[in-house]
Every structure is written in structure tokens, then in C-alpha cells.
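Example with several molecule types.
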Amino acid sequence: MSTKDRGPKVDGKQVSRRQFLHRAGWTGVGVGALALGAPHHRAAAQAGSYPEWIPPSTKPPKRGGTLTRASAWDPPMLDPRMTQSVGLYQFAGLTSSRLVRYTFVEEASNPVDIGLKGDLAESWSASPDYRIWTFKLRQGVKWQNVPPLNGRELTSADIKYCFEAYAKEGVQTFNFKEIEGVETPDKYTVRLHMHTPNVFVPQSLAEPITVIFSREVLEEDGDLKKRLIGTGPFILKEHNRKVRVVLTRNPDYFDKGRPYVDEYIILSTPDAATRTAAFRTGQADFIHVSSPSEVEVLRKTNPNLVAQSYHNTLTPFGVAMAQDKPPFNDVRVRRAIAMAIDRQKQVDTVFEGHGILGWGVPYIYYQDKAPTAAQFGPWWQYKPAEAKKLLAEAGHPNGFSTTLFYYEYFPQMTSQVQLVQSDLKKNLNIDVKITKMDYTTYYGRYADLKWEGLSWGFQSGHAVGIDERTYQYMHSKSTKNFFRVNDPQIDELSSKLRQTPDVKEQRVITKKIVDREFDQVARLWMPYDNGFLVFQPHMRNGAALALRRTDGYGSPHMARVWLDK
Amino acid sequence: MLRRALLAVPVLFLSSLIVFGLMRVMPGDALTVLMAESGNIGEKELAKVRKDLRLDLPYHEQYLVWVWQMVSLSPGDSLFTGEPIVVSLRKAIPVTLELTLLAMVLGIAIAVPIGVLSATRQDTASDYAGRMVAVSGLSLPDFWLGTLVITFAAIWFHWIPPIGYTSFWDSPGRNLQQFLLPAAVLGFRLAAATMRMTRSTVLEVLREDYVRTAWAKGLAGRIVVYKHALKNALIPVVTVVGGQLGVLLAGAVVVETIFALPGMGRLTVEAIAYRDYPVVQTNVMLVAGTLVTLNLLVDMTYAWLDPRIRYG
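Resulting C-alpha cells for the full complex:
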């Protein structure tokens, strides 16, 4: 983050009484103008003019200060066993540690650096068959100095207790039940015996949701809904639902000298306009916005802001087809639909050119650069005439009627759904009846896997590991296989991938899985916005790496943020 | 009056049946949202949690359990957050109460003088201006006005209310900073409706014989208008203000969201979205009870304003 373009502090700006009155008068005029439909100032979509990567600051970090963020999310509760909500994990990775973690911004060489580092573990190794994993813990790691832990030392027994509790109940049972048993040969060694060989165990344990919680709190309270005490860089000082979360620096954090800021405050701010206003007035130090025009509008009031053009490595949303039932069990129908949808138009219009065409497995697991449209294969090119011919071959020369239900995760999604409806009608004479639902109705229907027709499907956002995105989302026997993929080749390849330690071979197998997925149109990915992280000029090392944004599941990065003021 | 009070019982009973029934008709439940998104939870595990929370009971039993909880003033815990509902309400009620009261005070303080001014200066520039403001207030939705206010405040003054909530007793200054703008937005609609009603009823009363007599006696204009005309003109105004309470509470949902205030509106909307049955049911009953009580108070105010009205 460059310092030369740093400007005056917004929150320190003085407005005289005369200026205030003058502006108050003009506000009325401004409101009137807007009400009368003043032209919306869309800035030129200069997405390319923003850096994709903001390298870590070379200056020595400064200690102190309060970092603030206006957040759309509110933690429903504090129990990591019971929720995977981003509301909780926007800070749980700061109060609590994991055995292993992904690289932080200041350690990364580029935005797609997905190297693993030790968090509570200093080192780890696997048996030759990848069924036994041994983790050597750091010595002298202290739980936070608050009752009932009072700063006692963390030992391997804590890890064993935590992993067994995860396996026993809650939302992570599926993953932790893959562990056959946990052994603790000494205070600082944890040995995991897996049911089946799995080379991705460290990656799975580095996921943001696998935080180590304390035995004492669970035993005293019966759950972890009210207290979250860990070994992380920040202590949870206050959690006032729908108001704020306050984290204070943990002076006993094992990574000496860190974190840099004294306090991190997350303000519950459900409205997007209010979050933007908070950034403008300095009540928030950083913000996520979707489009280039939003960055440009912000720049008018905050000319010294620093924007990172965030590039997704995958899309979480696509058209899910009931491919176990007619007509979608016919691959020709799926291919015809894929060829009839103009995805580039969605990128250009809905996302102002700042989006990706859509794919489900992060490309970084099989190639270095983001895929191009040509790479997806013949069925993913926009060819309406060929699509119509193929649909006729499948026995639907006059199209058919179907349904699509969705939940509007973000406002642009409705435009996407309508564009798909329009393309399918225009190009294939497929009538799509759209039903927009509230989240609970949508989710209940989507996850029971009995619906017919189409749905705007999703993959959950917290886990972007290679195993999660291949085996767990596409294997026919996985409970996370929401797109109802049932392909023997993908089953075989994703199972083989779990037993392949060599990274080069992993990339080859992953590419085969992706090619097969696209050839069979097993999941019909839709474009997704890339978005921007926008920082106040004094914020350092807040940039996001490719896999996770620092304001969401990538929150552990915040331990390395510092304020240059 | 007692008979009127007793009429509240069937109203509240019907409300309880409607809210209970509607929540059960809606598909999905809190557990699905909270736990199943990961795709990791089996039906067996979900069934166990449902049993723990007594969601597996037949509907009539669930209803009776809930009614008993309400009557014994212990409405239970939120299914979604696990927090006792009493605790949630203790935090949310003061916020919404302060917001709506401030909105009402601001609304009435603006509406009545302008309404009277509009009526006494009929068809002048000030009358037209007042009427234009009133029509705007009725036409502009809260979400639009709130968004506009917060956006323009940030752009023009580099200031918005401090995000969050501070109790008035902890810091009156900060609390008022947080509440004045949202209360003004919320009160604008009330002010508009009240202003129009004040204007038309004052106009009507000003043409009454007794007002003409007061003018003929040579009383000062201020005394004629405020002492003789206004009190009699206020009965329909009170009706409008009473009727607007429901609108204020509904508007509070949007205003609390925009200004990030942790009140009843946000609590209820979130609870509906997540099918948090006990929270929704308790909140709806609380609002229903409040509206019934306030309507009773409005009826009593009629009797005070107009001695001819008697409840026998």
C-alpha cells in the first residue's frame, strides 16, 4: 500500500457553522435533484485500473489504534460447533487458533499463494499411507487470560477434546467423523488416525471454521453460545448482538509482538448504504463493494482511498438442474441449455465487466491463470443455433416448460436469473417460471434434494480447499452434493485425488475432474462479481488473498493489519 | 371502558392463533437454516435437536406450551441464538420505544403548528408550502428517505450518526446523535398525515358559529385559534395519530435497519427470516398488546377532549 497518496483524515475533517448551514441548504437542492431523477453518475468501468494485489507494506509496523469495520453480518451465536455463519467467522479466527493456517498477506508472494503455515502446530507429517497424521504443537501456548482458562497452557489433550466434540454434534460432524481416533502420546503431540487415506487433512484443518475452543467453557456452560475463549491474537471483549463485536489485543498471544492494533470493532450494519456512509465518514476503515462505479463514487468523497480489485478463483452460484430426472437427465438437454445462455452478457451488464464467467473448482488447483471461455469446451460457448439443434435431437424441438426457484443473495442475482429466463425462452423456447423465495424457504427446498426443474444453486462459502470443492461437492455419496452430480468418472477421480500426495499429479487429476464436469454440464456455473476491497489510506496489510476476503472467512489475516497514523 | 378493555381478550387470542398458524404454514425452520447449510447434518441429528427444542410436538401442544409460557411471562429462548427472549426484548424494546416516541414528538411538534398555520393562511404561499411538504411525507417511502438522508449526510457533512447503540442513561449526547436523524425520518410520515388532518379540521372549525362569535367578541386571533378552535379540531387529529402508531412501528423496521439500531423491528424481521417461532410469536403478541392498549388510551383521550363523549 503506497503512502505517497495519503490524504487528510476524513474523520478529522472540520466543518464550520457557516459551511454547515451552506451545505444544509444545498442538501435540500441535492435531494430534490435526486428525487427528480438526476442522472446516475456511472463512472467508467475502469476495473483494470485497480491493482489485483497490494503487496505488504515495507515500513516497520506501528503498534496501537482501533480498527473498525461496518459489517453486514451478525454472529447468530458464538458456538463454532453449531454454525458456519460468516457472522461468527468474521472474527472467530481472531479469537481462536487452528492447528494449521493458510499464509497471511505479509507472508504471501502473490495473491494465489495457498501455502500452509503452522498455527498451533509447529510441524506435521503423515504416515506413508496418509492414514495417520502427526502434529507437533508449539510449546508454551497460553489460553487467553480470562476465567475459567486464566492463561493455562494449551496441550494436546485440548486438541483431542475439541476434535472429539466436533465429531459428536453440530455442523462439522461430517468432516470430523473422518477421524477414526485421536491419540496424544505426549503434551505436545497429536496423532490423528483417519478412516481412509487423505492427503488433504492439513488443508481441511486450516479451514477457517476448524477453530480450537476451550474445554472448560463447554463443560461449564453446556454449550459455547455465550463465550468464545481461545488462543488467538484477540480477546472477545464484547458481543452485543445487532450492535457490535469488540475484540481487544491478547497480550499473551504466542506470536510475540502481534497483533498490532489494540482493538478491532465490528459494527453490525445491515444496510449497504449505511456501510458506505460509514466508510465515507471514517467510521469504517475498510469496506467491500461490488462494482467499479461504486469505487469511483466513493473516490469522489474519499480521493485517497486504496482499492484492491478482488479476483475470485471460483463462483459459488450456478443453475442447478434436477439431473436425476427428465428432461435434465439427458446430457444433450444440459449441453443445449449451457450453449443457450450468454454468460459474457451477464458479466458485461450485470457486473459492469468486472466479473468471472463462472466455474466451481478454484482454478489455482489445476492451472496458474484464470480460465478463458474457450477452455470450458464446446458446450460452454454461446451458440444459440447449435443449442436449438441439440435440444431438438434430445426430443424437445419446441422447447418445454420448467421452474426455477432462487433466493436473492445479492441484488444483481435477480438480473442474472431474468437474463437466463430470457435467453432460454429466446433461444430454446424453454418457458421458465421463476419463484423468488425467502432464505429459509429456499434453503429448506434446495437442501432436501427432491425438487424438480431448476434452482439457482450454491456451494457454501467457507471452505475452498481442493477436497471440499471436488470430493465433498461432487462425489455422488457426499451429503454436500447439492447439484446432484452422479458421475462414476468424477467419483473415481475425486476419490483418487484424496490419495495423491504429489501436487503435480493433483493438478492433473483436478483438471480431469473439471473437464469432465464441464463436458457433462454437471454444474452450470453462472458469472459472479469480483468486487473490490476498499481501504482508508492509513490501513496496512489488509489486502485479500485469492481464496478468502479479509472481511469474511479470511479474517485471521487481520492479526497482521496495522494502522499507519 | 371495562367492556372495551375486555374486548381486548378475544383480539389477543385471535392474534395469537394467527401468528402461531402463519409461522407453522411457512416452509423451513430455524434448525435447517442454522445447522444444515453445511450439508453435514443428517435427518437423524436434526430430529434429535428438534425433539430437544420440543418442535416435534403436535401443533396444538406447541400452542398450549407457548400460551402457558406467555401467561407465565417466560417466553423461552430463541431457537436461533439460544438467548432468552426476555433478554432480547429487554435490549430491543427501549430502542424502539425511544425511536417511536421521539418520532412522534418530532412529528406532532412539526405537524400541528404548520397545520394550524396552513389553515389560518389558506391559499397563501405558506399554505402551499405546508401542503407540498405534507404530500411529500405521505409519498416518500421510509427506506428511500432514510437511505437518502444517510447518504447525503455522509457526502455533504462528512457526518452520520455514530453507528451502534448507546443508552440515553450512559451518554445522552451520543444517544441523541444516534436517534434524532432516524426519528426525524420516521416522524416525517406521521407529521405529514397529522399536518393534513390538522389543517382540514382547523379549517372546518374556524367556520363554526362559536368561532365566529369569538371573533365578534374581539378576542385576539391567537386565543381564538389556539384556545377555541384547536382543542375542538384535535379529536380527529388524535385519531390519526393513534392510527399512525402501527405505521410507526412498521416503519421502525426499515429505519432501524438503515440506521443500524438494535430495536424490535430488526429483531422481528430476523426472527421471521430464520423461522425463530418463539421470538416472532412473542414480539407479535407484544405489538398487538401495545396497539390494543394504545387504542384504549386514544378512546379515553376522546372523552377528555370532548366532554359529550361518554363510554357507558
